[in-house]
Amino acid sequence: TLPGIAGIVLTIGMAVDANVLIFERIREELRTGKTIPSAVEQGFARAFVTIIDTHVTTIISSLFLFVFGTGPLRGFAVTLVLGLVINLFSAVYVSRTIFMWELSRKRKLESLSI
Fold this sequence. Notes:
The protein is built from 3 helices and no strands. By secondary structure, it is an all-alpha fold.
């Protein structure tokens, strides 16, 4: 349905926002002269609270839409909540795991292009 598609589009937008936020935090840490592993760790730690806050706030508002809304609004709310839960897992856990895996490989990174 159209509200479901709108929920997916909003979820994709929030996923992009979460990744941009993480990369900006990492870039800020690199500018202070930290090593790449330290900058990645600190960048994720600094972005974590903001990402959790935005996702939880949106999930709470979606729950209100589900409880007090009718058919199309309920579909939008369900799609949005499912997308946000998946996005939260992806932004907080999967991205960090990929970064740490890449950093732990045998070759040493001298620079990071983000």
